[in-house]
Each structure stands twice: as structure tokens, then as C-alpha cells.
Here is the input.
Amino acid sequence: MARPIQIAPSILASDFARFGEEVKAIDEAGCDWVHVDVMDGHFVPNITFGPHVVKAIRPYTDKVIDTHLMIAPCDPYLEDFAAAGSDLITVHAEAGPHLDRSLQAIKALGKKAGVSLNPATPENVIEYVLDKVDMVLLMSVNPGFGGQSFIPSTVEKTARVKAMIGDRDIDIQIDGGITTETAPLVAAAGANILVAGSAVFKGQGVEGYRENIARIREAAEKAQN
Ligand code: DX5
Ligand code: ZN
Here is the structure.
């Protein structure tokens, strides 16, 4: 049985002046998770927001707050993101020399842990941490900005990671350039959590977001094996 498709809109593409309302809107529009892109201007060439924004949006949804840390180092901030209300915290394998330690720290905070790989990073770097993660996040763009084009090699990488995971209880999330055209490609290869920024927020308000979320979900579900 394929794992259920979950849609995680990224608030990176939302109206920053109205975070609370935007989170409420995607929640009402039927999203599964809320994806929060944290950038530091060092690990990635852009700066977004930190744990205070997670804390501020927490009251606006009961859904999973999925925090994608594109920061280095990450360890000094894990506790703050956990305390702010993140349900799942994802760190990049490239963000430091001690990935195993970072994942252990997230687990010790009582949170779900994810590991992310940039497009150019081979999947074998996660081989020895699969027992510590709830999710593998494969970047399908170079992290830092929304609205970029999907990198096609992600499809083959997804299939390889799916094979590595075997029957372990681990989700595969894809982030970057997800649309109704690219969602089926990664769903067919074994991904089940789809992040979508521009493809969701290009709509207007709850109804627009609802339609976009439903279309991506439908396209992905049809393609699942
Ligand atoms: C990129 C971020 C993504 C991004 C996705 O660094 O991690 O989550 O917001 O945006 P779209 O869906 O517009 O490619
Ligand atoms: Zn992200």
C-alpha cells in the first residue's frame, strides 16, 4: 500500500504581512502540513524567518508544522524551533559534520526528524541515519528561493531513496517546483509528501488555495503505485 499523499504548502510563497491569516487559509483549504522555510543567508543565499514566526503562526493551525531548516549551524537553534511549536524539524545533511548528532537532538526534544539533501548530494550520505529519521526531504531545486524550475534528476533519486528505505516507516518529501505536472513524476517514484509554494499561493484566498491543493493531490494520487 502506498503511503497517503500529503500536501504541504510553503508559507515562503504567502503574504508575509499576513502570516496568521495565510496559515488559517491553507488549513481551511485542506492542506495536510504547513511547510516553514527557514533560511539564514549563509547556508542558502536568502534570509527568511526564525522560531518567532513559528510561534506566531502556531495558534492558527492544528496541522503539522513542518520546519525546513536551511541554516548552518543548525544545532544551536533546534530547541527554539521545538519550543516554538514545530512538529517536525528537518536539517540538511550538508549543514554540518555531525548529522547523526543533530537528528538525535531533534528526537530528544520529542519531535519528528527529517533529513534533507540538496540536488547535487548523493543519497548514500543518509544510509547510516535511516534509523533516526521520520522523513527524507529531497530538494528538487537548489534551496534558497521559491518559484524555481523542478530539477528532473530528482525523479531517479526519489526511486533510489524509496528502495533504500524499503519497508521502514519513513516518508519521502519533495520540495521545489512542484506543480500538477511534476507531482505525478515524483509520486510514481515513491514520494508521498509534496511541498508546494507558488503552485498553491498563486490562487486567491481559501477557494483558490483549495483548488490548487486538490489539483496537485489528485495528480499525485493518480500516479502513485
Ligand atoms: C526552497 C524552499 C521551498 C520553496 C518551494 O528553498 O525550500 O520550500 O518554497 O517553492 P516552490 O513550490 O515555489 O518551488
Ligand atoms: Zn522547503
